[in-house]
Amino acid sequence: MLPLIVIRPEPGCTATVSAAHAAGLDPHGFPLFAVVARSWQAPPPDQFDALLLGSANALRAAGPGLAALRHLPAYCVGETTAAAAREAGLNVAATGRGGLQGALALLAPEHRRLLRLAGEERVPLSLPDGVTMTERVVYASRPQPMPPELAALLTRPALVALHSGEAAHHFAAECVRLGLRRALHSLCVLAPRVASAAGPGWRELAVAAEASDAALLALARQMCQEP
């Protein structure tokens, strides 16, 4: 079985590694990003009907500014973000599947003015008719150099899980910097845009059936079986 390499930031890296262990895979966690809070100011909450949340990191990094927004219902990208929202004292109106765009399809008629708490790197969204959105950047994911332990592991074939376009760019760049052969390694990625960011030359590249960790790990189980 090929080893599965997970490079997303903590605490998501540990969560994915734990789920991969439970699925019978051979995961190795090497977070190549560090999440840092960004300075921001919450706009007047009466200007909005609901929050839009694409990552639990937004809640962890929001700091005191989140307090004034806790009365707003939250639309979350997935269950992990929804759990973090409830832990932060928010009322979760709906939880999407297949990315944040899917959560927009679940908007209640009275929720037309959205406040999106997001990271520096974020997915562009297409808003439904009559819906407006204001964005506030509350965190950034800072790329970290590949540690020697991971570079040594990548001298042999491996499967790498990529959760974002930023992760794909950084992993590909680190392979070039360290002289690691792309043709040795396979990639399982969360969405088509992540596949585009990874570029060509990999042994195999496949996209999960939907933008969720569960779907990504289901794909990894198929790909980790060596010929």
Notes on the structure:
The chain has 227 residues and is α/β, with parallel strands linked by helices. The chain has two domains: 4-32 and 144-223, Rossmann fold (3-Layer(aba) Sandwich), CATH 3.40.50.10090; 35-141, Rossmann fold (3-Layer(aba) Sandwich), CATH 3.40.50. It is 30% helix and 23% strand. The chain is built from eight helices and eleven strands. The protein has helices at 12-22, 56-61, 79-87, 100-104, 148-153, 165-178, 192-198, 213-223; strands spanning 4-6, 27-29, 33-37, 50-53, 74-76, 92-95, 113-119, 132-143, 159-162, 186-189, 204-207. Helix 6 links the parallel strand 9 and strand 10. Helix 6 (165-178) runs parallel beside helix 7. It starts with a strand and ends with a helix. The model has no long low-confidence stretch (mean pLDDT 94).
Features of the shown structure:
6-stranded mixed sheet, 2 domains, alpha/beta, Rossmann fold, about 230 residues, single chain, about 25% strand
Question: Helicity, in percent?
Answer: 25-40%
The secondary structure category is alpha/beta
Looking across the biggest beta sheet, what order are the strands in? 3-8-7-4-5-6
Q: Give the amount of beta strand, in percent.
A: 15-25%
What would you call the shape?
elongated
Examine the secondary-structure arrangement and name the CATH architecture of the largest domain.
3-Layer(aba) Sandwich
Q: If helices are DSSP runs of H or I spanning 4 or more residues, what is the number of helices?
A: 8
Distance between the termini: 9 Å
Name the poorly predicted regions: none
SSE series = EHEEEHEHEHEEHEHEHEH
The total beta strand count reads 11
- Tell me the radius of gyration: 18 Å
Mean pLDDT: 94
The major β-sheet equals: 6 strands, mixed
The number of distinct structural domains comes to 2
